[in-house]
Design a protein that fits this description.
The chain is α/β, with parallel strands linked by helices. The chain is 47% helix and 13% strand. Helix 4 links the parallel strand 1 (49-53) and strand 2 (71-76). Helix 8 (157-169) packs across helix 9 (176-191), helix 8 (157-169) runs parallel beside helix 13 and helix 12 (259-269) packs across helix 13 (285-308). The chain binds S-adenosylmethionine.
Amino acid sequence: MNASHLDFYMKYGISPVRQDISDLDRHFQRRGALYRHLGILPQHIAGRRVCEVGPGSGYNSVFTASLQPSYYELVEGNPTGIDNIRELFRSYPQWTADIAITASRIEAFPPKPFDFVFCEGLLSGVPNPEAVLNVLAACVAPGGTLVITCVDHLSHFPETIRRVFGDLVIAQDDDLDTKVSKILPMVESHLQTLKGMSRRLDDWVIDNLIHPGSIIPLINFPEAVAVLAHDFQFLASSPHFVQDWRWYKDIVGADCDFNINAIEQYWANAHNLMDFRRRVPVRDPDANMRLYDLCTTARACVERFEHDGNRQHLAEFRTLLQEIADNFLAFSPETGAALAEAAEALDLEAFDPKKAASLQHFSGLFGCGTQYISLTRGR
Ligand SMILES: C[S@@+](CC[C@H](N)C(=O)[O-])C[C@H]1O[C@@H](n2cnc3c(N)ncnc32)[C@H](O)[C@@H]1O
């Protein structure tokens, strides 16, 4: 089974990461807001050496280029992505003329020191995230900043549910376009509830609901921070859920560490990653770890179904979904109602895609799917 972004994109000759950036001011505002959440201001990038790993088709790179780094290198493994980048950059020669474009898997890229390394949307689609993190780390100069993204079993759970809906309307041997044409009408109304959506919907469906790399086990925020902790300190995240109420004068000696607090904050807030529309108070971290484990087990059922076609896995998924819904009903009734409605719609004998398209509570349920994390090398 083909289970990485790169292999899947190369097999079909696609780069399904297109964004509508026709309103460039708006695109730049979005990217500026993200960087601010991460503690990165435009003047931090100006005149610095920047690397972007896995830029896809280069839409986000246009913004970073506009901040005028002294040197900017893109490392992308997908030849279609490279072609798209070159074509896109022709429209923005004032910023992109000097960008170095390297066609390479990051694993084969000889590390050299950069002040900033950005790697967005890549870790969630590779079978070897820890190895990739170590290569990225080796590209960050002392004092430099690394930006990565994590998608996890809890934050991506609403998509896992939509994926099961999709699995019920496609045949595994349908071609890619047929799969998209069957799934998109079912989730289009859901995606239309997202005010800030800038991606093409067909690309979103391929990337989240179809390709095998988006159902494999994921590295989560605490795991990624732990992999990097030997040399990196947490700086900030988007969404900005990490609070640090320590008196700064106490952050010295053995207590001079930002990773432990960030990981603790993740577990206290993890339940809030299920529904991007709502915030409820922090919870017992152990309860959130149990919730996370339920999502992990449910997700594995879907992966197994796609592997062997045995519907019993989907029946197990539905039981777990009901348990997760009950869990949420106790502290976040609207989110619980959305999950319970999805469980009810998941009638394996008589699944109705039209009904799934217009679920009253579930249609607008999306998690804080991607968490961006900035970390600095050294203190
Ligand atoms: C989901 S896309 C994200 C694209 C872009 N960063 C964005 O956020 O829109 C992941 C990108 O990483 C690239 N990629 C995946 N694995 C890679 C690897 N091992 N080395 C280099 N590029 C890789 C893929 O080809 C793809 O362009």
